[in-house]
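Hi R.,

Here's the chain you asked about this morning:
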Amino acid sequence: MLFFKSTTRISDSALLNGFSDCHCHLLPGVDDGVKKVEDTLKLLDMMHRQGVREVWLTPHIMEEMPNTPEDLRKRFESLPYDGPLTLRLAAEHMIDSGFCLERASLLQLPGNQLLVETSYFTPPMNLKGKLHDIQAAGLYPVLAHPCRYQYMDHEDYEELHSLGIRFQLNVPALTGLYGPAAEKNAQWLLDRGYYSLTGTDTHSITHFRHFLDSRISRKWLKKLRLLIEEEQTK
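And the predicted structure, written out as tokens:
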């Protein structure tokens, strides 16, 4: 009983009221996210019912999913959505051997921010050099879900943060949906104010439902709300 008093269900928390989701895979049929248009529309309706106001669709661009900005824009523009949410298009760029900064710069988050990721298990060669190249091009690299990178520890986070690398929080990490290690890392990063952006990283209806049904500590919910409020004022 004490557990339930100290936690709250995401769907009951009003956390997503006014939320801008900067990371999700709702553009249908382009990556490992949503496959069907009807599922995209259903998810957008579910998000609206939770109070979400804006959704950035961020499909993968990587060697295994060689999407192009031109094709993604065509698919985005053909999406038959006429609801109340504001939809925008960016991408989640994998820093791998196929990473092309010129191409990646065509699909940014607001404020010249570029959402990037790496393998969960091993860093790419010269990761810091590639992040520096992004900065030298006048962009702000935002590392997606850093809490999930198994090769990183607190010292790595501190070094990257000191270099001006921004971090994006997958909110489900704080509910334990990615396991205890990722949850602890996310708490550590949030507690130190290292996060700049938040998203759900939604890949499917099932994924989003699990997120809404999951529970979050009231302590971390309070800190998370402060982060989201800061984002809304920028």
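The chain has a mean pLDDT of 96.

Let me know if you need anything else.
M.
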